[in-house]
Design brief:
With about 120 residues, this protein is mostly beta strands. It is built from two helices and six strands. The strands form three sheets. It has a two-stranded antiparallel ribbon. A two-stranded antiparallel ribbon has the order 2-3. About 0% of the residues are buried. It has one domain. The longest helix has 7 residues. Helix content is about 10%, strand content about 35%.
């Protein structure tokens, strides 16, 4: 059986369905800053899709950075869905950051030591 978690709606709307646990980023994950280019002409800019896998533990961290340039882009792309099979997979949310021209809002857990 596969479950699907909508991360932003869980964090921001306080949905009561499936809530993945919030956990710190693993110490091995390289959370490097990105250079944000000038605003493009497309409704949505995908600035980064990063997937790091740690072997042999088979831990995986996915980082996605998007810029929404129009209200329609926010409406159509403002949710993230994570599909997983709870019989052999688990999901932990590390951080959700929303940056606006007026400032940033972040929900995260503290970082862990090396594992």
């Amino acid at each position: 059986m596969r479950n699907c978690v909508s991360v932003l709606s869980l964090l921001l709307a306080g949905a009561t369905a499936i809530r993945p646990p919030v956990a710190p980023l693993p110490a091995w994950f390289e959370d490097v800053p990105i250079d944000v280019p000038a605003k493009g002409t497309r409704p949505l800019d995908r600035l980064l899709v990063d997937r790091e896998i740690r072997f042999p533990s088979r831990q995986e961290v996915v980082r996605i950075v998007k810029r929404f340039n129009t209200p329609d882009a926010v409406e159509s792309g403002g949710q993230i869905q994570i599909e997983y099979d709870p019989e052999w997979q688990s999901v932990k949310l590390h951080r959700a950051r929303i940056r606006r021209e007026t400032g940033a809002s972040t929900r995260s857990a503290p970082r862990t030591s090396a594992s």
